[in-house]
């Protein structure tokens, strides 16, 4: 168990989002945010990587209104382990505009899956990076489990460094459902787009067998504050490779970020600086998430 003194306390997010400089299309979706309602602190796993600030769905709603975001996906945070109570309470109370990606393991029953689906769940998260997030004994076990969620139309979402997978094609082929990767694949920009592992992933992504979230540029940047200009080449490589499989998410409230806290409007406006015109922004913000999450 990790000593309490080693658990990082997270800063609060920027409280002042603004209206974006470009028009936001109707039905725009933030596909990646976390929620930490008061009263659920006892659910945090002891062996966690961080302790988040208490934040309610109303706090996120304030951000969403400023960004003109109408739909959103709550992604289970690793601090909760497999206890999805806080996530499900928020999502099931907002069935028209919210979906969830949760953490479960191979022992989940068919009745469990049916219940989760009715509450708005559309995917399973496998976090192989942060303490508390890996709920399967191996990636292979997680991929085998996808056979059980296929009939629900779910997907599996990995938080992993994609360049570390020697045979990304085999991993993707082993899944019975769509595979999603967060944080632009989580390859640090210091490795660059020419990194052999990133190129392997980029080739697989171009073939349409994976999805990528354009989230958390600050998590792969070598810079400590916006505009994270060193991420542009990697983002543009993904955008050019397969815009049909791209999603955008704020990653609010930016837990474990040690640099200057980003403004969520700046993060959304990066789509424009990465070369996305109005049509492509609508595809990434509306059409692609509608397809994957069933809005």
Mean pLDDT, to the nearest integer, reads: 95
| Strand order, largest beta sheet | 2-4-5-6-7-8-9-10
Strand content: 5-15%
Give the SSE string. Answer: EEEHEHEHEHEHEHEHHEHH
Query: What is the count of DSSP helices, taking H or I runs of 4+ residues?
Result: 10
End-to-end separation: 40 Å
Reconstruct the topology from this structure.
Blueprint: E1 8-9, E2 29-33, E3 50-51, H1 57-67, E4 71-75, H2 85-92, E5 98-102, H3 110-118, E6 121-127, H4 139-149, E7 155-159, H5 168-174, E8 179-181, H6 196-206, E9 211-214, H7 217-220, H8 232-241, E10 246-248, H9 264-273, H10 278-293
Parallel strand pairs: 1-3, 2-4, 4-5, 5-6, 6-7, 7-8, 8-9, 9-10
Description:
By secondary structure, the protein is of the alpha/beta class. The chain has one domain (4-293): Alpha-Beta Barrel (TIM Barrel). 33% of the residues lie in helices and 14% in strands. The protein contains 10 helices and 10 strands. It has an 8-stranded parallel beta sheet with strand order 2-4-5-6-7-8-9-10. Strands 1-3 form a two-stranded parallel sheet. The radius of gyration is 18 Å and the shape is globular. The model has no long low-confidence stretch (mean pLDDT 95).
């Amino acid at each position: 168990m990790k000593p309490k003194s080693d658990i990082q306390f997270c800063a609060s997010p920027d409280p002042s989002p603004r209206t974006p400089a470009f028009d936001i299309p109707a039905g725009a979706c933030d596909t990646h945010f976390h929620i930490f309602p008061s009263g659920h602190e006892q659910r945090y796993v002891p062996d966690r990587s961080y302790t988040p600030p208490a934040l309610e769905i109303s706090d996120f709603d304030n951000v969403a209104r400023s960004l003109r975001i109408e739909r959103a996906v709550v992604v289970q945070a690793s601090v909760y382990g497999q206890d999805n109570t806080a996530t499900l309470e928020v999502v099931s109370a907002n069935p028209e505009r919210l979906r969830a990606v949760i953490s479960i393991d191979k022992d989940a029953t068919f009745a469990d899956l049916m219940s989760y689906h009715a509450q708005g769940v559309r995917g399973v998260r496998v976090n192989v990076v942060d303490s508390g997030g890996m709920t399967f004994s191996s990636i292979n076990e997680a991929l085998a489990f996808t056979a059980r969620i296929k009939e629900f139309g779910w997907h599996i979402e990995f938080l992993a460094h994609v360049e570390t997978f020697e045979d990304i094609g085999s991993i993707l082929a082993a899944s019975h459902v769509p595979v999603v990767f967060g944080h632009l694949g989580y390859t640090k920009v210091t490795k660059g787009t020419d990194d052999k592992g990133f190129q392997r992933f980029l080739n697989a992504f171009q073939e349409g067998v994976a999805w990528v979230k354009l989230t958390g540029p600050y998590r792969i940047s070598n810079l400590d504050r916006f505009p994270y200009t060193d991420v542009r080449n990697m983002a543009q490589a993904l955008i050019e490779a397969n815009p049909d499989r791209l999603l955008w998410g704020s990653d609010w409230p930016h837990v474990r970020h040690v640099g200057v806290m980003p403004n969520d409007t700046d993060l959304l406006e990066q789509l424009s600086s990465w070369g996305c015109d109005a049509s492509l922004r609508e595809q990434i913000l509306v059409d692609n998430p509608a397809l994957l999450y069933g809005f």
